[in-house]
Amino acid sequence: MNLVFDKVFAPHYGEAIDIAPNIQRITVNNPSPFTFHGTNSYLIGKDTLALIDPGPIDEAHKATLLRAIAGRPVSHIFVSHTHRDHSPLASVLKDELGAILVAEGPHRPSRPLHTGEINFLDASGDTEFMPDIMAPDDSIIEGDGWALRSIHTPGHTANHVVFALEGTDILFSADHVMAWATSIVAPPDGSMSDYMASLDRLLARHDRVYFPGHGGPVTNPKTFMRGLKAHRKMRERAILERVRAGDRTIPAMVTVIYRETDPRLHGAAALSVLAHLEDMVARGLVQTEGSPAIDGVYW
């Protein structure tokens, strides 16, 4: 199944954009190869609001959020996961707005670090974040005219969660499903087996539109997620072919498999290959000396 990305997106920095009844999107001016045009924050409600993913510490973005809030109470701030482009501003706004922080839990890796392993993603994790409410899977928090269901979707991070707006067919998919690119799954923070299971979980739902953490909406989620699954299976086959061809290290595989990818993303690509290899080693498709690692030798 072909995977077609939609990269048409106008970020409208400094503005709150109406995207659905009582839903506004505000995009941080933090574009990068990993964030696309920037991180999306969402305001939900009319009188008393919910805020999803306030974003990084950014004074201009904070000012835009406060203008959009326009003095209305914000009862809850929901955080999809603890990467620094999504969560740090939450604690600042909690103090200023008196809101309750809701998330799956604090930052943590998907698995323990192996002996001698370094977490290359330490700088991206918001390890200081602590929610007031650790929302259980499939739990609902209600506000003034809105209710959000927390659906745990580990994979991109161990504590990743998406939020479904009850009474609608809208889901806020954060970094798990995005129209412009595939999600980065990078151990030890991420887990490919978890990511694939989380895709299956969302495929069992019937949401019509996803509003993601970066870029524009996913307007045909089921078809798109089937494409994501097919893409990951294709990547797995490519890795297996490189191993059979004699490649024994991840850098050698990345050079061939990602030859058309922006070189700035090759570090992330290497971690994605590691995520696949961890899963493939666990399933007996590939062998390695010791635990799978970025500098491991595979056959």
Automatic annotation (TrEMBL):
CDD domains: metallo-hydrolase-like_MBL-fold
Alphabetical keyword list: Hydrolase
Pfam family membership, one: Lactamase_B
Hydrolase in keyword set: yes
Start and end residues of each Metallo-beta-lactamase domain: 38-214
Keyword Lyase appears in the UniProt entry: no
SUPFAM superfamilies assigned to the protein according to its UniProt record, in alphabetical order: Metallo-hydrolase/oxidoreductase (SSF56281)
Domain of life: Bacteria
GO molecular function: hydrolase activity
Protein name: Glyoxylase-like metal-dependent hydrolase (Beta-lactamase superfamily II)
Organism: Phyllobacterium trifolii
